[in-house]
Amino acid sequence: MKLRNPKSRFDLAIGSRDRVLEVGGGHNPHPRSNVVVDKFIDSNYHRNGDIKVLRGQQFMEADGENLPFKDKEFDYVICCQVLEHVEDPVRFLKEQFRVARRGLIETPSLLGEYLFAKESHKWLLHEHQNVLYLVDKTKVNFSVTYNMMELVQDYLPKHSIGFKIVERTHPNLMTIRIEWQDDFEFVVNPTDPEILKYFSGQWKLQWADEFFPKKTMWQEVRDTASACWDISKNVFRSKVLKRA
């Protein structure tokens, strides 16, 4: 079942003794992962840089649709920005449900995909009423015409305080994050018109309240203050670590 939508890939319910697998760590593996697997070791087509392995991590070449592990061998599995690339999402997700008791799936949201679309992304994804829907891009004639990935993923997070605040006050605006236990509900290539309407045509203003509920002024002030505090802590840590 779905547990919640974490605010970031570091906002996870992982115990200190949990054994953690990461599927598709690529150039940016999670520091909490004990074992990291990747399918493509000789090509960066599906990632933004060469494979990186952190100290203490075990790396294995493996296909996420056919993981070489026993049932429930891991306590937790992390999978960030990978599901949108895979050929068979049903098999891919069922393998994660098989090898781990709990986990995190992170993908671009609809807005995220339109802002930094990649040719290697096969699927458009949207969460609605706790169900994750995946639609093959070819079925809605989605094409990559203008790529702002470097601006949205690299430049603005480093150089714009305003953008950093938005990332924290609206953490699931450009990204879908689902923390789950045992499994969660998903549908591949839905046929329901009430779902397909989100994937083509024009976004309706009335949908915004459902997916991005309005906040009171106090909630806005509280969330903004919390975001500023978190940014300050991160800047302090980065400067201390750089000096060290």
Key structural traits:
2 domains; three-stranded mixed beta sheet; Rossmann fold; single chain; 244 residues; alpha/beta; seven-stranded mixed beta sheet
Question: Topology, pairings included?
Answer:
Layout (H helix, E strand, L loop, with lengths): L1 E3 L15 E4 L11 E4 L19 E4 L12 E7 L8 H11 E9 L1 H6 L7 E6 L2 E6 L12 H11 L1 H9 L5 E7 L4 E3 L4 H4 L11 H4 L5 H27 L1
Parallel strand pairs: 2-3, 2-5, 3-4, 5-6, 8-10
Antiparallel strand pairs: 1-9, 6-9, 7-8
Helix pairs in contact: 3-4, 4-7
Give an overview in words.
It comes from Nibrella saemangeumensis. This is Methyltransferase type 11 domain-containing protein. With 244 residues, the chain is an alpha/beta fold. It folds into 2 domains: 2-207, 3-Layer(aba) Sandwich (Rossmann fold); 214-244. It has helices at residues 89-99, 110-115, 149-159, 161-169, 193-196, 208-211, 217-243; strands at residues 2-4, 20-23, 35-38, 58-61, 74-80, 100-108, 123-128, 131-136, 175-181, 186-188. A 7-stranded mixed beta sheet has the order 1-9-6-5-2-3-4. It has a 3-stranded mixed beta sheet with strand order 7-8-10, with no helix packed on it. Helix 3 (149-159) crosses helix 4 and helix 4 (161-169) crosses helix 7 (217-243). The radius of gyration is 18 Å and the shape is globular. The N and C termini lie far apart (43 Å). The mean pLDDT is 91.
- Overall geometric form: globular
Q: What is the helix content?
A: 25-40%
Low-confidence stretches: none
User: Helical stretch count?
Assistant: 7
Our measurement of the CA-to-CA distance between the termini, rounded to an integer number of angstroms, reads 43 Å
* Major sheet size, sense and barrel closure: 7 strands, mixed
